[in-house]
Amino acid sequence: MEPLTEREIRAAFVNCTKGEAKRLNMPRDLAEQPWEDLDYLGWRDPQAPDRAYLVAVLDGRPTALALRRSTAGSWQARRSMCSMCLTTHSGGVSLMVAPRAGKAGQQGNSVGAYICDDLACSLYVRGKRDAGAGARLHETLTLDEKIRRTVTNLAAFVAKVTGA
Ligand SMILES: [Zn+2]
Fold this sequence. Notes:
Blueprint: H1 6-11, H2 18-23, E1 41-44, E2 51-58, E3 61-70, E4 79-81, E5 88-90, E6 93-99, H3 102-106, E7 110-116, H4 121-125, H5 143-162
Antiparallel strand pairs: 1-2, 2-3, 3-6, 4-5, 6-7
């Protein structure tokens, strides 16, 4: 993806208030992110471990989501698969819950998905980060097809949040 500025990212949040979007903690090294290898930029709040954020450019427009990492449940101990990039980790996948945009979110509606805990799906898909033995399924898909699948999964998640 093309590099985004802090300003563009803060303006792209769809499921938190403007004030929250202005205050939330950005990645410290935004310019140093491996943008050319990213389908989306995801980061954990360095000061609040239960908060995470992601931004993707979908249909030519940056869209950013505020997420909460659910820490409840025993699923953390099991091997789980990321629903975006289909990488299997032991303990490296979190249930990320996004309040829905607009009225639905104000009424407490949210959407959850199991996502790589470090939000580095793009790097796992490209083999640039290793999730350990057996992490990737043996597939005949090309890298491009795997990338497209990850983007499709992400776009579906974002659409559920925005209600589009
Ligand atoms: Zn993933």
